[in-house]
Amino acid sequence: MNIKSTWVVFLTLLFFIPFAPSLAADSSGTSMPPMQAIAAAIKKVAFSPSSSTPAKNDLKEHIAEQQEAIVFTAPPRETPEQGMEIYKPVAEFLSKTIGERVVYKHPGTWGVYRTEMLKGGYDIVFDGPHFNSYRMEKLSHNILVKMPERFEFAVIVLKEQKISTVAQMAGRTFCAHAPPNLGTLVLLSQFDNPSRQPVIISTNGWDNIYAGVASGKCLGGVVPVANLKKYDRAGNMKVVLKTQAMPNQAFSAGPRLSAEDQTKIAQALLSPDAAGPTAKLRAAYKVGDSFALANNQEYRGLAEFLRNEWGYY
What we know:
The chain is of the alpha/beta class. It folds into 3 domains: 3-46, no CATH class; 56-149 and 248-306, D-Maltodextrin-Binding Protein, domain 2 (3-Layer(aba) Sandwich), CATH 3.40.190; 153-242, 3-Layer(aba) Sandwich (D-Maltodextrin-Binding Protein, domain 2), CATH 3.40.190. It has 12 helices and 11 strands. The longest helix has 19 residues, at 80-98. The protein is globular and about 60 Å long. The model is unreliable at 1-54 (pLDDT under 50).
């Protein structure tokens, strides 16, 4: 309520207080105590619905919902503002590609991301291979294009540690991203006994994970092999587990998009025309010059890493 409205309410009260006894009767003839009558008058004036125009962003979302727009999203790894900067150009590019309105929607939290995904609220998604695999198996999504470099993870400790297997690290501290990050889920999958699970010290950024192990903050860490090669030029780390290579992050599309439109999206994202609209996305995730064609088969089975995450199975 603005200052002008506050003065109106105040002056109204000054006028009506002398007549509170007469206000204390409602339309049915029953009596209300004077102060309750005044409170009712305040509530009616102060909390009546505003006729002001909705906020610009709310209005855009309302219009999008009314038009049944195709919803494009990605995990909440960025702030809403950063997400808009990275993904909005992609959404606009895809709108032109299929001739339908595609809107980018930031999920806000991982909980909202999971909930909306499971109920089919997202039509086009860019995220990790385990999520792509899950949507393919459970939500009838098709995987269209991917980051060309394959993913390998390494579980690391300092060389001087007398550890040679992951099993020896049960119950010990690990610097890692919070689940459901794929690297962390790969690590947790190595421990079947819940009472022997490692202690995850939530750490954002592969460089910070490496630094946490190097400084002794954590006994171990999990990082992509490609990142380890870049960080550990001095050879300070020992690899106690190296995963098999798996496909990388990818775009998937759901059943609200026809097979024809899904093909158009894949072709568009691989075309030279995508260079500008996807530039910030490719820079943020070090994709390289372009994406690569993907298929469902290569992602099959990776959803198993979500097996012990709440809500998926």
